[in-house]
Amino acid sequence: MIEAITSPNILEQRSKDIQTQSERGGSSMQMDDFLQLLTAQIGNQDPLEPMKDTEFISQMANIASLEQMQEFSKGFESFAASHDKMVSQNYLGKDVVIEDEATTVSGVVTSVEKNADGELKVVVNGNSYDTSLISKVSLPDNSKSGSLQ
User: Cα separation of 105 and 97, whole Å?
Assistant: First the structure.
């Protein structure tokens, strides 16, 4: 009886390397990693029952799709960060009402700042507040009339 020549240790070791890299905060599986696994799988498959070419194509399409989604996600995160900056800058000079569970504060936004975590905060009455706490935005009283003097 002929048995397939396999080397599961190669596949297991490569899978463990990728998992360890991912757990350490490394990047997720990339196309090169996938191709190395696929090459090892092809080289160690049962010659009497080889993988079908449609399986290879399907796997490659899946990993390519995953990579595209990851790139899209990175681009969208960058867009969202830029959008947050633009929105925060629009609060400058406006009257705002800030509400959290315990207090309500109102006043003019005098500046926008970024904290150590990279979060944008508005400064009202000398204190920093998260922009998500803003419940109302309006023009300051002196600019509501719209008349020139």
Answer: 6
Q: What is the pTM (predicted TM-score) of this model?
A: 0.49
pLDDT at site 76: 92
Q: What domains does the chain contain, in order, with CATH numbers?
A: 8-44+53-84 (no CATH), 92-139 (2.30.30)
How far apart CA 134 and CA 125 sit, in angstroms, is 14
DSSP 62: H
DSSP 125-139: TTEEEEGGGEEEEE-
Per DSSP, the three-state class of 19 is helix
Amino acid identity, position 83? H
Q: What is the CA radius of gyration of the chain?
A: 28
CB atoms near residue 145 (< 10 Å): 9
- The Cβ of residue 9 has, within 10 Å, a number of other Cβ atoms equal to 9
